[in-house]
């Protein structure tokens, strides 16, 4: 596992593979959300969640694919614009993952698509003004624990906390010393 710089001094991403050929989580997520085969398989497998009424109006699988692709493109553009042109700080884009983030050594964060009730999510850990992308998902249920694919994102965040601890990063100063 290593950390890849997406935008220097602002946005980083974890790469869970030991080799440098594997995509980091930022790249993996945006690639997946532009892959029509992946999206069709995902939405077909999660059709009950898609049509549960949590999102209104209830989209078809075909509509969900188009919505997800568009949301991913808009969100990636927003993030790139924010960090490249520094129109606004990233903390105006990212939000706390939950209400009780003060129990974590570094706050868990999320950013979601720009449309109302967007299901496209990116998850990160914030250390000072830097964000470390741990993963992302299409979240079709209220709680992340409700489904395997979103629960896995919580596990990835925990794995990243463990990585920080193993590296001796227990506070903001530690991250600065290791230049993470």
What's the topology here?
Layout lengths: L1 E6 L3 E5 L9 H8 L3 H10 L1 H4 L10 H25 L9 E2 L11 E5 L7 E8 L2 E9 L9 H19 L5 H6 L3
Parallel strand pairs: 2-6
Antiparallel strand pairs: 1-2, 3-4, 4-5, 5-6
Helix pairs in contact: 2-4
* Number of helical regions: 6
* Low-confidence region ranges: none
pLDDT averaged residue by residue: 87
Q: Which H/E pattern describes the elements?
A: EEHHHHEEEEHH
Q: Order of strands in the sheet with the most strands?
A: 1-2-6-5-4-3
Q: Which structural class matches the secondary elements?
A: alpha+beta
Number of domains: 1
Fraction of residues in helix: 40-55%
How much strand content do the residues show? 15-25%
N-end to C-end Cα span: 13 Å
Sheet having the most strands: 6 strands, mixed
Inertia-based shape: globular
Count of β-strands:
6
Radius of gyration: 16 Å
Report on this structure:
By secondary structure, the chain is an alpha+beta fold. It has one domain (2-177). Helices cover 40% and strands 19% of the residues. It has a six-stranded mixed beta sheet with strand order 1-2-6-5-4-3. The radius of gyration is 16 Å and the shape is globular.
Could you give a quick summary of the protein structure above?
By secondary structure, the chain is α+β, with helices and mostly antiparallel strands. Helices cover 40% and strands 19% of the residues. Strands 1-2-6-5-4-3 form a 6-stranded mixed beta sheet.
């Amino acid at each position: 596992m290593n950390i890849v710089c997406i935008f220097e001094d602002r946005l980083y991403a974890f790469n869970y593979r030991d080799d440098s050929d594997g995509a980091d989580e930022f790249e993996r997520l945006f690639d997946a959300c532009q892959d029509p085969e992946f999206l069709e398989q995902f939405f077909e497998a999660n059709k009950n969640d898609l049509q549960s009424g949590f999102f209104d109006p209830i989209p078809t699988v075909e509509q969900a694919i188009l919505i997800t692709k568009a949301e991913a493109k808009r969100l990636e553009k927003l993030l790139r614009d924010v960090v490249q042109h520094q129109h606004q700080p990233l903390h105006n884009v990212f939000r706390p993952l939950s209400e009780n983030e003060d129990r974590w050594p570094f706050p868990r964060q999320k950013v979601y698509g720009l449309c109302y009730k967007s299901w496209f999510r990116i998850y990160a850990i914030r250390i000072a003004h830097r964000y470390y992308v741990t993963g992302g998902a299409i979240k079709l249920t209220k709680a992340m624990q409700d489904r395997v694919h979103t629960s896995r994102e919580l596990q990835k965040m925990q794995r990243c906390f463990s990585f920080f601890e193993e590296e001796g990063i227990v506070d903001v100063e530690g991250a600065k010393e290791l230049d993470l």
